[in-house]
Amino acid sequence: MAAKAKHRDPIVNAAVTLFRRQGYAGTGLNDIVDASGAPKGSLYYYFPAGKTSIAVAAVEEAGRRVITTMVELASKQKSTADMMRAHARLYSGWMRKSGFRDGCPISTVLLELAPRYRDVSEAGRRVYSARLGILREKLAADGFTPARAERLAVLCVSTLQGALIQSRVERSGSAIENAAEELAIMLEASRPSPIKAGP
Amino acid sequence: MAAKAKHRDPIVNAAVTLFRRQGYAGTGLNDIVDASGAPKGSLYYYFPAGKTSIAVAAVEEAGRRVITTMVELASKQKSTADMMRAHARLYSGWMRKSGFRDGCPISTVLLELAPRYRDVSEAGRRVYSARLGILREKLAADGFTPARAERLAVLCVSTLQGALIQSRVERSGSAIENAAEELAIMLEASRPSPIKAGP
Hints:
Two copies of one chain form a homodimer.
Chain A: H1 8-22, H2 29-36, H3 40-46, H4 51-76, H5 80-97, H6 107-113, H7 118-142, H8 146-170, H9 174-190
Protein backbone atom coordinates (compact mmCIF):
# COMPACT_ATOMS: atom_id res chain seq x y z
CA MET A 1 0.00 0.00 0.00
CA ALA A 2 2.89 2.40 0.70
CA ALA A 3 4.12 2.11 -2.88
CA LYS A 4 0.60 2.46 -4.19
CA ALA A 5 0.05 5.64 -2.21
CA LYS A 6 3.22 7.26 -3.55
CA HIS A 7 1.48 9.34 -6.19
CA ARG A 8 -1.86 9.82 -4.47
CA ASP A 9 -0.82 12.71 -2.22
CA PRO A 10 0.84 14.77 -4.99
CA ILE A 11 -2.30 14.33 -7.11
CA VAL A 12 -4.60 15.47 -4.30
CA ASN A 13 -2.32 18.38 -3.40
CA ALA A 14 -2.19 19.52 -7.01
CA ALA A 15 -5.98 19.30 -7.20
CA VAL A 16 -6.39 21.41 -4.05
CA THR A 17 -4.11 24.11 -5.47
CA LEU A 18 -5.66 24.15 -8.92
CA PHE A 19 -9.30 23.95 -7.78
CA ARG A 20 -8.94 26.90 -5.44
CA ARG A 21 -7.19 28.99 -8.07
CA GLN A 22 -9.37 28.29 -11.09
CA GLY A 23 -12.22 26.12 -9.87
CA TYR A 24 -13.17 22.52 -10.48
CA ALA A 25 -14.65 22.70 -13.97
CA GLY A 26 -11.87 25.01 -15.13
CA THR A 27 -9.24 22.43 -14.20
CA GLY A 28 -8.59 19.54 -16.56
CA LEU A 29 -7.35 16.12 -15.52
CA ASN A 30 -4.19 16.81 -17.53
CA ASP A 31 -3.59 20.00 -15.54
CA ILE A 32 -3.72 17.96 -12.33
CA VAL A 33 -1.39 15.27 -13.65
CA ASP A 34 1.07 17.86 -14.97
CA ALA A 35 1.11 19.83 -11.72
CA SER A 36 1.45 16.69 -9.59
CA GLY A 37 4.38 15.19 -11.47
CA ALA A 38 2.66 11.79 -11.20
CA PRO A 39 2.41 9.50 -14.22
CA LYS A 40 -0.91 9.88 -16.02
CA GLY A 41 -2.00 6.31 -15.36
CA SER A 42 -1.79 6.83 -11.60
CA LEU A 43 -4.69 9.25 -11.72
CA TYR A 44 -7.00 6.57 -13.10
CA TYR A 45 -5.48 4.10 -10.69
CA TYR A 46 -6.23 6.12 -7.56
CA PHE A 47 -9.43 7.69 -8.80
CA PRO A 48 -11.16 5.13 -10.98
CA ALA A 49 -14.51 6.79 -10.24
CA GLY A 50 -13.32 9.89 -12.10
CA LYS A 51 -13.01 13.58 -11.54
CA THR A 52 -15.69 14.04 -8.87
CA SER A 53 -13.85 11.56 -6.65
CA ILE A 54 -10.79 13.84 -6.95
CA ALA A 55 -13.04 16.71 -5.82
CA VAL A 56 -14.08 14.67 -2.77
CA ALA A 57 -10.42 13.94 -1.94
CA ALA A 58 -9.49 17.62 -2.45
CA VAL A 59 -12.27 18.82 -0.15
CA GLU A 60 -11.18 16.26 2.47
CA GLU A 61 -7.51 17.28 2.21
CA ALA A 62 -8.28 21.01 2.30
CA GLY A 63 -10.55 20.28 5.26
CA ARG A 64 -7.74 18.48 7.10
CA ARG A 65 -5.49 21.50 6.60
CA VAL A 66 -8.00 24.05 7.84
CA ILE A 67 -8.87 21.86 10.84
CA THR A 68 -5.18 21.50 11.74
CA THR A 69 -4.77 25.27 11.55
CA MET A 70 -7.88 25.91 13.64
CA VAL A 71 -6.96 23.39 16.33
CA GLU A 72 -3.59 25.09 16.67
CA LEU A 73 -5.12 28.57 16.75
CA ALA A 74 -7.71 27.48 19.33
CA SER A 75 -5.00 26.14 21.62
CA LYS A 76 -2.72 29.16 21.25
CA GLN A 77 -5.22 32.02 21.33
CA LYS A 78 -6.94 32.91 24.58
CA SER A 79 -10.36 33.74 23.11
CA THR A 80 -12.45 33.21 19.97
CA ALA A 81 -11.94 36.90 19.19
CA ASP A 82 -8.17 36.48 19.14
CA MET A 83 -8.53 33.24 17.19
CA MET A 84 -10.46 35.09 14.50
CA ARG A 85 -7.85 37.84 14.34
CA ALA A 86 -5.01 35.34 14.05
CA HIS A 87 -6.81 33.27 11.42
CA ALA A 88 -7.52 36.41 9.41
CA ARG A 89 -3.84 37.41 9.54
CA LEU A 90 -2.84 33.94 8.32
CA TYR A 91 -5.34 34.00 5.45
CA SER A 92 -4.41 37.52 4.49
CA GLY A 93 -0.71 36.59 4.45
CA TRP A 94 -1.32 33.46 2.37
CA MET A 95 -3.48 35.40 -0.04
CA ARG A 96 -0.84 38.08 -0.50
CA LYS A 97 1.84 35.45 -1.05
CA SER A 98 -0.19 33.77 -3.79
CA GLY A 99 -0.97 37.03 -5.60
CA PHE A 100 -4.54 36.73 -4.26
CA ARG A 101 -5.15 33.64 -6.30
CA ASP A 102 -5.61 31.15 -3.50
CA GLY A 103 -8.61 32.00 -1.39
CA CYS A 104 -10.54 29.36 0.48
CA PRO A 105 -9.41 25.90 -0.54
CA ILE A 106 -12.92 24.55 -0.81
CA SER A 107 -15.43 27.36 -1.38
CA THR A 108 -15.12 27.28 -5.16
CA VAL A 109 -15.51 23.51 -5.45
CA LEU A 110 -18.48 23.50 -3.09
CA LEU A 111 -20.21 26.34 -4.93
CA GLU A 112 -19.68 24.58 -8.25
CA LEU A 113 -20.73 21.09 -7.17
CA ALA A 114 -23.00 21.28 -4.10
CA PRO A 115 -25.73 20.26 -3.68
CA ARG A 116 -25.79 18.44 -7.05
CA TYR A 117 -22.96 16.02 -6.25
CA ARG A 118 -23.88 14.16 -3.11
CA ASP A 119 -20.39 12.85 -2.26
CA VAL A 120 -18.81 16.27 -2.60
CA SER A 121 -21.57 17.89 -0.54
CA GLU A 122 -21.14 15.18 2.10
CA ALA A 123 -17.38 15.83 2.27
CA GLY A 124 -18.09 19.56 2.59
CA ARG A 125 -20.60 18.91 5.35
CA ARG A 126 -18.02 16.94 7.33
CA VAL A 127 -15.52 19.80 7.07
CA TYR A 128 -18.13 22.35 8.19
CA SER A 129 -19.10 20.14 11.07
CA ALA A 130 -15.49 19.90 12.31
CA ARG A 131 -14.83 23.63 11.88
CA LEU A 132 -18.03 24.55 13.71
CA GLY A 133 -17.23 22.09 16.50
CA ILE A 134 -13.84 23.72 17.21
CA LEU A 135 -15.41 27.17 17.29
CA ARG A 136 -18.37 26.09 19.42
CA GLU A 137 -15.99 24.75 22.02
CA LYS A 138 -13.89 27.91 22.03
CA LEU A 139 -17.01 30.09 22.26
CA ALA A 140 -18.30 28.00 25.15
CA ALA A 141 -14.94 28.53 26.87
CA ASP A 142 -15.49 32.28 26.34
CA GLY A 143 -18.69 31.89 28.38
CA PHE A 144 -21.31 31.91 25.64
CA THR A 145 -24.36 29.66 26.13
CA PRO A 146 -24.50 26.53 23.96
CA ALA A 147 -27.30 28.03 21.84
CA ARG A 148 -25.37 31.22 21.12
CA ALA A 149 -22.07 29.37 20.64
CA GLU A 150 -23.78 27.24 18.01
CA ARG A 151 -24.96 30.22 16.00
CA LEU A 152 -21.86 32.35 16.58
CA ALA A 153 -19.70 29.52 15.23
CA VAL A 154 -21.61 29.75 11.95
CA LEU A 155 -21.03 33.51 11.90
CA CYS A 156 -17.27 33.04 12.49
CA VAL A 157 -16.86 30.57 9.61
CA SER A 158 -19.07 32.62 7.27
CA THR A 159 -17.15 35.79 7.96
CA LEU A 160 -13.82 34.37 6.82
CA GLN A 161 -15.21 32.49 3.82
CA GLY A 162 -17.18 35.50 2.62
CA ALA A 163 -14.34 37.97 3.14
CA LEU A 164 -11.96 35.77 1.14
CA ILE A 165 -14.13 36.31 -1.95
CA GLN A 166 -13.92 40.09 -1.59
CA SER A 167 -10.16 39.86 -1.00
CA ARG A 168 -9.63 38.09 -4.29
CA VAL A 169 -11.62 40.67 -6.17
CA GLU A 170 -9.85 43.59 -4.50
CA ARG A 171 -6.42 41.96 -4.49
CA SER A 172 -6.06 43.04 -0.87
CA GLY A 173 -6.19 41.37 2.50
CA SER A 174 -8.07 44.32 4.05
CA ALA A 175 -11.53 42.77 3.75
CA ILE A 176 -10.45 39.68 5.70
CA GLU A 177 -8.68 41.61 8.40
CA ASN A 178 -11.40 44.27 8.73
CA ALA A 179 -14.27 41.79 8.89
CA ALA A 180 -12.45 39.64 11.45
CA GLU A 181 -11.47 42.67 13.56
CA GLU A 182 -15.05 43.94 13.79
CA LEU A 183 -16.32 40.47 14.60
CA ALA A 184 -13.62 40.15 17.27
CA ILE A 185 -14.52 43.52 18.81
CA MET A 186 -18.19 42.56 19.01
CA LEU A 187 -17.42 39.09 20.36
CA GLU A 188 -15.36 40.65 23.14
CA ALA A 189 -18.10 43.15 23.93
CA SER A 190 -20.79 40.43 23.94
CA ARG A 191 -18.82 37.96 26.00
CA PRO A 192 -20.71 37.15 29.20
CA SER A 193 -18.94 38.17 32.40
CA PRO A 194 -17.05 35.26 33.86
CA ILE A 195 -18.86 33.51 36.69
CA LYS A 196 -17.04 34.29 39.91
CA ALA A 197 -15.69 31.36 41.85
CA GLY A 198 -17.42 30.81 45.19
CA PRO A 199 -15.90 32.18 48.41
CA MET B 1 -31.10 49.44 -30.65
CA ALA B 2 -34.37 48.16 -29.14
CA ALA B 3 -34.50 45.32 -31.68
CA LYS B 4 -30.82 44.58 -31.17
CA ALA B 5 -31.25 44.37 -27.41
CA LYS B 6 -34.14 41.93 -27.69
CA HIS B 7 -32.06 38.83 -27.06
CA ARG B 8 -29.37 40.35 -24.87
CA ASP B 9 -31.35 40.32 -21.60
CA PRO B 10 -32.49 36.68 -21.89
CA ILE B 11 -28.88 35.65 -22.59
CA VAL B 12 -27.56 37.53 -19.56
CA ASN B 13 -30.37 36.25 -17.33
CA ALA B 14 -29.72 32.69 -18.42
CA ALA B 15 -26.01 33.17 -17.72
CA VAL B 16 -26.72 34.50 -14.21
CA THR B 17 -28.89 31.48 -13.41
CA LEU B 18 -26.51 28.90 -14.85
CA PHE B 19 -23.30 30.41 -13.45
CA ARG B 20 -24.66 30.50 -9.93
CA ARG B 21 -25.93 26.93 -10.15
CA GLN B 22 -22.96 25.24 -11.78
CA GLY B 23 -20.27 27.87 -12.12
CA TYR B 24 -18.71 29.63 -15.08
CA ALA B 25 -16.41 26.92 -16.45
CA GLY B 26 -19.09 24.27 -15.96
CA THR B 27 -21.50 26.18 -18.19
CA GLY B 28 -21.11 25.88 -21.95
CA LEU B 29 -22.12 28.57 -24.43
CA ASN B 30 -24.70 26.14 -25.78
CA ASP B 31 -26.24 25.77 -22.32
CA ILE B 32 -26.66 29.55 -22.17
CA VAL B 33 -28.20 29.77 -25.63
CA ASP B 34 -30.55 26.87 -24.91
CA ALA B 35 -31.69 28.30 -21.58
CA SER B 36 -32.15 31.80 -23.03
CA GLY B 37 -34.25 30.77 -26.01
CA ALA B 38 -32.24 33.22 -28.12
CA PRO B 39 -30.94 32.19 -31.54
CA LYS B 40 -27.33 30.99 -31.35
CA GLY B 41 -25.99 33.75 -33.57
CA SER B 42 -27.22 36.42 -31.16
CA LEU B 43 -24.73 35.29 -28.54
CA TYR B 44 -21.81 36.06 -30.85
CA TYR B 45 -23.55 39.25 -31.90
CA TYR B 46 -23.90 40.65 -28.39
CA PHE B 47 -20.74 39.16 -26.97
CA PRO B 48 -18.19 39.16 -29.75
CA ALA B 49 -15.39 39.23 -27.15
CA GLY B 50 -16.46 35.76 -26.01
CA LYS B 51 -17.39 34.00 -22.83
CA THR B 52 -15.58 36.23 -20.32
CA SER B 53 -17.59 39.20 -21.57
CA ILE B 54 -20.74 37.22 -20.69
CA ALA B 55 -19.26 36.73 -17.22
CA VAL B 56 -18.80 40.49 -16.91
CA ALA B 57 -22.41 41.10 -18.00
CA ALA B 58 -23.66 38.41 -15.59
CA VAL B 59 -21.75 39.91 -12.65
CA GLU B 60 -23.13 43.36 -13.55
CA GLU B 61 -26.71 42.06 -13.83
CA ALA B 62 -26.50 40.05 -10.61
CA GLY B 63 -25.00 43.14 -8.99
CA ARG B 64 -27.92 45.29 -10.15
CA ARG B 65 -30.34 42.81 -8.60
CA VAL B 66 -28.61 42.66 -5.23
CA ILE B 67 -28.27 46.46 -5.13
CA THR B 68 -31.98 46.89 -5.88
CA THR B 69 -32.84 44.47 -3.08
CA MET B 70 -30.49 46.18 -0.64
CA VAL B 71 -31.72 49.70 -1.42
CA GLU B 72 -35.27 48.50 -0.77
CA LEU B 73 -34.29 46.73 2.46
CA ALA B 74 -32.34 49.77 3.67
CA SER B 75 -35.34 52.04 3.13
CA LYS B 76 -37.83 49.66 4.77
CA GLN B 77 -35.86 48.38 7.74
CA LYS B 78 -35.16 50.66 10.66
CA SER B 79 -31.62 49.47 11.42
CA THR B 80 -28.74 47.58 9.83
CA ALA B 81 -29.52 44.71 12.20
CA ASP B 82 -33.06 44.42 10.86
CA MET B 83 -31.78 44.82 7.31
CA MET B 84 -29.48 41.82 7.84
CA ARG B 85 -32.31 39.73 9.29
CA ALA B 86 -34.61 40.59 6.37
CA HIS B 87 -31.91 39.96 3.76
CA ALA B 88 -31.15 36.59 5.36
CA ARG B 89 -34.84 35.62 5.27
CA LEU B 90 -35.01 36.56 1.58
CA TYR B 91 -31.89 34.55 0.72
CA SER B 92 -32.98 31.60 2.77
CA GLY B 93 -36.40 31.61 1.05
CA TRP B 94 -34.86 31.87 -2.42
CA MET B 95 -32.43 29.10 -1.62
CA ARG B 96 -35.19 26.80 -0.40
CA LYS B 97 -37.26 27.55 -3.50
CA SER B 98 -34.37 26.62 -5.80
CA GLY B 99 -33.61 23.36 -3.98
CA PHE B 100 -30.49 25.08 -2.58
CA ARG B 101 -28.96 25.36 -6.02
CA ASP B 102 -28.92 29.13 -6.37
CA GLY B 103 -26.71 30.71 -3.74
CA CYS B 104 -24.99 34.00 -4.33
CA PRO B 105 -25.35 35.08 -7.94
CA ILE B 106 -21.74 36.12 -8.27
CA SER B 107 -19.56 34.34 -5.69
CA THR B 108 -18.86 31.33 -7.88
CA VAL B 109 -17.91 33.36 -10.95
CA LEU B 110 -15.68 35.65 -8.90
CA LEU B 111 -13.93 32.74 -7.18
CA GLU B 112 -13.34 31.06 -10.53
CA LEU B 113 -12.14 34.10 -12.45
CA ALA B 114 -10.80 36.76 -10.05
CA PRO B 115 -8.17 38.06 -9.94
CA ARG B 116 -6.99 36.45 -13.22
CA TYR B 117 -9.57 38.13 -15.43
CA ARG B 118 -9.26 41.84 -14.97
CA ASP B 119 -12.65 42.83 -16.47
CA VAL B 120 -14.53 40.34 -14.33
CA SER B 121 -12.63 41.41 -11.19
CA GLU B 122 -13.38 45.03 -12.03
CA ALA B 123 -17.11 44.29 -12.40
CA GLY B 124 -17.00 42.45 -9.06
CA ARG B 125 -15.23 45.36 -7.43
CA ARG B 126 -17.95 47.77 -8.59
CA VAL B 127 -20.67 45.54 -7.12
CA TYR B 128 -18.80 45.29 -3.79
CA SER B 129 -18.32 49.03 -3.73
CA ALA B 130 -22.05 49.68 -4.20
CA ARG B 131 -23.08 47.04 -1.62
CA LEU B 132 -20.62 48.40 0.92
CA GLY B 133 -21.79 51.96 0.27
CA ILE B 134 -25.42 51.13 1.09
CA LEU B 135 -24.40 49.37 4.30
CA ARG B 136 -21.98 52.11 5.35
CA GLU B 137 -24.75 54.66 5.07
CA LYS B 138 -27.18 52.52 7.07
CA LEU B 139 -24.54 51.84 9.74
CA ALA B 140 -23.77 55.56 9.97
CA ALA B 141 -27.52 56.17 10.45
CA ASP B 142 -27.34 53.63 13.32
CA GLY B 143 -24.77 55.90 14.94
CA PHE B 144 -21.54 54.04 14.15
CA THR B 145 -18.48 56.17 13.40
CA PRO B 146 -17.37 56.29 9.74
CA ALA B 147 -14.33 54.09 10.51
CA ARG B 148 -16.42 51.39 12.18
CA ALA B 149 -19.19 51.65 9.59
CA GLU B 150 -16.60 51.03 6.89
CA ARG B 151 -15.35 47.83 8.50
CA LEU B 152 -18.74 46.63 9.72
CA ALA B 153 -20.08 46.92 6.17
CA VAL B 154 -17.43 44.42 5.06
CA LEU B 155 -18.48 42.09 7.88
CA CYS B 156 -22.16 42.33 6.87
CA VAL B 157 -21.47 41.43 3.22
CA SER B 158 -19.03 38.66 4.15
CA THR B 159 -21.48 37.08 6.57
CA LEU B 160 -24.18 36.56 3.96
CA GLN B 161 -21.82 35.46 1.19
CA GLY B 162 -20.03 33.01 3.44
CA ALA B 163 -23.20 31.58 4.96
CA LEU B 164 -24.66 30.96 1.50
CA ILE B 165 -21.87 28.47 0.82
CA GLN B 166 -22.67 26.51 3.98
CA SER B 167 -26.39 26.61 3.14
CA ARG B 168 -25.80 24.96 -0.19
CA VAL B 169 -23.75 22.20 1.37
CA GLU B 170 -26.28 21.59 4.14
CA ARG B 171 -29.35 22.09 1.96
CA SER B 172 -30.77 24.29 4.68
CA GLY B 173 -31.29 28.00 5.22
CA SER B 174 -30.29 27.76 8.89
CA ALA B 175 -26.69 28.88 8.39
CA ILE B 176 -27.81 32.11 6.70
CA GLU B 177 -30.47 32.89 9.27
CA ASN B 178 -28.31 31.96 12.27
CA ALA B 179 -25.27 33.92 11.11
CA ALA B 180 -27.40 36.98 10.32
CA GLU B 181 -29.28 36.76 13.63
CA GLU B 182 -26.07 36.68 15.68
CA LEU B 183 -24.61 39.54 13.69
CA ALA B 184 -27.84 41.50 14.18
CA ILE B 185 -27.84 40.88 17.96
CA MET B 186 -24.24 42.09 18.23
CA LEU B 187 -24.84 45.11 16.00
CA GLU B 188 -27.75 46.12 18.22
CA ALA B 189 -25.68 45.67 21.37
CA SER B 190 -22.75 47.63 19.89
CA ARG B 191 -24.83 50.47 18.52
CA PRO B 192 -23.75 53.72 20.11
CA SER B 193 -26.41 55.39 22.26
CA PRO B 194 -28.26 58.06 20.31
CA ILE B 195 -27.04 61.57 21.05
CA LYS B 196 -29.73 63.29 23.08
CA ALA B 197 -31.19 66.45 21.59
CA GLY B 198 -30.28 69.58 23.57
CA PRO B 199 -32.76 71.04 26.11
